[in-house]
Amino acid sequence: MFHLDQTSHPDGLQSVDQKSSEINNQNDDAQLRSLGKRPLLNRGFGFLSMLGLSCSALLSWEGILVTSIAGLSNGGPAGVIWGFLVNWIGTISVYCTLAELASMAPTAGGQYHWVAMMAPASYNNFLAYITAWLTVLAWQALAISVGYIIATMLQGIVVLANPAYVPLPWQTVLIIWAVMLFAVVMNSTTSRILAKFEGLILVLHLAGFFGVLIPMVYFAPHNEAKVVFTGFLNEGGWSSQTLSFFVGIPTIAGSLLGADCAVHMSEEIQFAAIVVPRALVYTVVINGSLAFAMGIALMFCLSDVTAALEAQTTMFYPFLEIFYSSVQSTTGACLMAGIVLVLAVASSVGVYASASRMLWSFSRDRGLPFDRYLVKLSKNSLPVVSICVTLGITMLLSLIALGSSVALSALLSLAIAALFSSYLLVCGLLLWRRTTGSIQSHLTSVEVLNSGNLRWGPWRIKEPLGTLNNMFACIYSIFLLFWSFWPQTTPTTPETANWSLLVFGAVIIFSVVWYALRARHYFKGPIKEV
Fold this sequence. Notes:
GO cellular component, one term: membrane
CATH superfamily: Amino acid/polyamine transporter I
Number of helices: 22
Protein name: Amino acid permease/ SLC12A domain-containing protein
Largest sheet: 2 strands, antiparallel
Strand content: under 5%
Subcellular location: Membrane
Membrane topology: Multi-pass membrane protein
Pfam family, one: AA_permease_2
């Protein structure tokens, strides 16, 4: 199914997991120059370290514990299982398509760079600008979402250990700040240290899965298979069970969000044209498998749906109640939840790395205000200014929790909508290009930046599966984008509304108006630096 052309790398893949060598860096830098970009960042990541970063950022088996709230309310146990399966299949399709693009052009800009390459010449700058804003928005929203989830999870664990504790919004904000400061410190180290850290997290990610799964499954009474696979619920008040099921799907998709962080780290990876696609696909397959197993186990151990849903009002997340009811021990449940919490904190490092690199890349192409400052690098060749700006944005957005936790939690829906909008654009353009036969062989020597000339990278899906997969990726992206704006309950009030549509629309309108008034005069797509 997958075609891997090794002619561009005579050593094959043997050195992917080894320390970077001068020859490897020269090959990667030469490809980056062919895309019009100067190599400025150190390539400290190999395959395993990037797989660790992607897996920790995706955080799927941990994420299904968190996102099961929406699935239980709108869908029930069966809704969680089948909803995740739908999202997993769709996400694999999307990431396989992104993997093909990442192999063609492994740059930190990712989606907007690909749009500039593939869109018609008369529209490529405009579409690239909109796509860049969507991607920046998505990763900034994801950064604050991860911080909010970690903060409320910690408060939920404290409630589990001490029911007399009452979580306060200002405490949530301070915890978010503490987590984000940790992420900034880790991202401000050298790329080699960060790579080693992510390799360690990959081991903990896999070990933690069994550390949570085994005691939960062993000690808990189990539901019948009929309840797990056919037991649907409609707690959102929707007119039909089918509608309720679809409303619950986008939030479950949040557990599969973020694997494309490898794309935005491309300029810090050895053999990026092969490692990035592999990291994308391996991440969604490995994490999806773990998450699917965890979701099934969680639903089998869900002895009391009502108690689990009611726990949301006190402990924020039903899985904390499920842990306790499974092991019948506060200490045991807190230890299990602590594993999830530690890995969630580790995920903030990968999310911050991707968010800051995307901000840096867009600034490098003069797409953001104060770009001359945002592109500055440290002595270790790290985008420290972009990292600090991402911290500032997160700290400001976290203040929303002082007024409305609902508005802050809606940022996950916003991240889903913004990311999949950018995915839809690049998947649609690639489908157009590949069906018109305008993509040349990997061995063809052409310049691809803003020239209309495209060539495949060393990693691609063979035809006709490539085109069929590309089509399915477009369909799934449209499907998920549509449902991501729906509220979780009806009738809708200001407290239960999904405000992501308002913010998403505001960003789109702002970027279009700003492009028409100012940006079209200075933003010319990815700048050709060499």
